[in-house]
User: What shape does this take?
Amino acid sequence: MELAMHLQSVSKRFGTITAVEGVDLKVHRGELVGLVGPDGAGKTTLARLAAGALAPTAGRVEPESRGRVGYLTGRFSLYPELTVWENLTFFARIYGMTGPALTAEAERLLDWVGLLPFKTRLAGALSGGMRQKLALACAVIHQPPMLILDEPTTAVDPVARAAFWNLLREQSHRGCAVLVTTPYMDEAEFCHRVGLLHQGRVLAMGTAAELKARLPHRMAVLAPAAPGEKLRRAEAMALAAALPGHRWSQPLGASVRMALDASADLLAPAGYTLTQVEPSLEDAYIWLAGEEVRA
Amino acid sequence: MMQRLMALVYKELIQIRRDKRTLGMMIALPVLWLIMFGYAFSFDVQEVTVGVIDQSGTRVGGLVADAFRTYDRFAPVVLAEETVGGINNAMYRDEVQMAVVIPPGYGGEGTTGGMKVYLDGANLFAAQTGARLLQRALEPVQAQIKAELEAKTKAGAQSLTMPAPAVPQLIPELEILYNPELKSANVMIPGLLGLVVMFMTTMMTAMGIVREREYGTMEQLVVTPIRPLELMLGKILPYFLVAAVDFGLVFLAGSYLFDLHFVGNLPLFLGLSLLLVFTTLGLGLLLSTIAQNQQQAMQLAIFAILPQILVSGLIFPLSSLPKVIQYVAYALPFTHYVPIARGMFIKGQGLDLLGTEALILAGYAVVVVALASLRFRKRLA
Assistant: This one.
C-alpha cells in the first residue's frame, strides 16, 4: 500500500503541557484510520499537527500537508453569511479552480453530499449534519490525496452520523487517505485501522478486532436474576469485586460490566446472573490505559 | 496569488453585504457624524438675547441703542429693572444672555466713558457669539456718524479754509481670511473625513479578522495554499474599499450639503490620507491579534479611537488642552492628520507647511503596518 502520510515521533508542547508525545502514525492511500480517545487525550492537537495547522515541537510530518490535505473540524467552520454554493465555490477558488470545471465539480460534490436542493440556503441556517456535509464537500473540493477530520460528528445526530461515515468510506474507496478523530468508540468500527489515544500517546494501533483480541481477560455482565429488577448498585459492585479473578468492574445501566481473569470460572452470586460477553473496544481501551499507568 | 486574493475579497464583500449590522454602521455612521459635526456641533449661536439700558441722553447713545435693538442677530429684551441689579437678576433667570449699559453723556463732547457690556458666561457659546457680534451691530452707526461728520466738515469748509478733521476710527474693521463666515462645518468636515476612515478601517478590520477566528474558518484557511500575506491583504482590502467609499461620501456631502470647497492639491491630500489609512488598517490588524472575540475587538477599537478623537484638536483646540494631554495628543497619529486635512482643505496649504505632519504620519504607517504584519504572521503560525 502506498504511504500517504507519515507522522514521525511527533510531539507538541504548549508551555509545560505536553499535548502529544512521540506519536508515530502511518496512513496509506485508500485507508480509513480512526484515532479514538476521551476528551483531553490529544485528538485535536494531533489532527491539527497532521493537517499542518500547527507546527510540531519535535518530530516531523511527511510529506508537508499544507495545501494538499482536506481538513475538517467538528467546530463550525463555514461562513454563516454565505450560501452553501458560495461557501463551496470560495474554497474551490482558493485552490485555483475556475470556470466550468469549478461549477461542474461543485455541483457534483453537492449532489454527492445531498445538498444540491439547498444550494442557495445560508450556511448559518443549516442543521448540524448538513453543515458537516457541506464542510466535507469544501474539504474535498480540490480532490486532496489526504483528508483529516477532527471529531467531525460531535454535533451530529445518529442517523446523519451514519450517513456521514458512509461518505468518508466513499472517499477512502476513491483512494483518499482518511484520518478521523472521534470520542465515540463505536465509530471506530467504521475504520480500517484504529489508534487508541491516551494522554497524548498512541496506546495501540490495529484493526478493531486486533485491539479487542489484545485484552487478556474475559468480559462478563452481572445483572439481577429477576427480570426488570432494579440494580442495587453498591451491593452489585461489592459482589462483583468479591468474585474470584475479578479485575475491574463498572456499573452500566441496570447491570455491572466486569473483567475477570481468562481462567476464572463464571460463578454467579445468589440472586444474580453472570453472563460472558464479547469484549468491546472500550474494554480494550480501559485495559490498555491501565497497563500504561502500571508501566 | 491574484485569484486567491480576489476570492478572499469577494467573499468578504458578500459577508459585509449580508451582515446588516455592519452595513448599517458603515452607512449610518458617516451620515450621523456629518449631521453632528456639520450642524449640531456648531458653536455658533444664531440669536443672542440682549437687554439695552440707555442712560446717555445723547444722540449718539440713542443711535447705538437702536442699532443694538434692531440688529437681526440680537433679540431685544426689555429689562424689568434698568439697573445693574436688574441685569444680574435677568441673567440669573436666563431671560437675557447679554446686556449693554450706555453711560450718561456717551459720545458727547468731553466724555470718556465707554459702554459696558455684561455677558452670561454660563451660556458660553452665546456669550462668545454676542461679544463677537457687538462689532458688527455697531458698523451701521459708525458709518452713519462718519458720514454726518464728513457732511458737517464739508459745509464748514465752504466758509473756512480749514482741512477736514480726521474721523476717529475706533472700531476695528474685521476681515476673516479663511472660512469668512466662521462656519464650524468648514473646520469640522475635513477632520471628519479622517475620523470616518479611521473608525471604519480600525474597527472593521479588527472585527473582520476576529470573526474569521470565531467561525473557525481561520484554521481552515491556514491549511489551504493561501499565504499569510494574501490572507492579510484579503482581509484589509475590503475594508480599505469601505473606507474609500465613506471618504468619498463625506467629501461629496461636504461639498454639496455644506458648500465646502477643497482648495488644496487633491492628489497630495489623497496620498496623505492614504498614510492615515495604512496606520489605522495596521492598528485594526494589531487589535485583531489581541482580541479574543468580536465584542472585545469592538471595545478595543473604541478604546483606541476615542482618545484620538478627543485630543486630536478636531473638536477642542490643541492649545486649550493641558500640557500633559498635549504630549499625549502628539503621540497619537490622528493628531497629525487634523492639521493636514484642515490646512489643505480650507487654506490650500502644501507640503512646505505640512511636511512635519506628513513625515510623522508616514513614520506611523510604516511602524504600525510592520508591527501588525509581524504579529499577524506569528498568530497564524
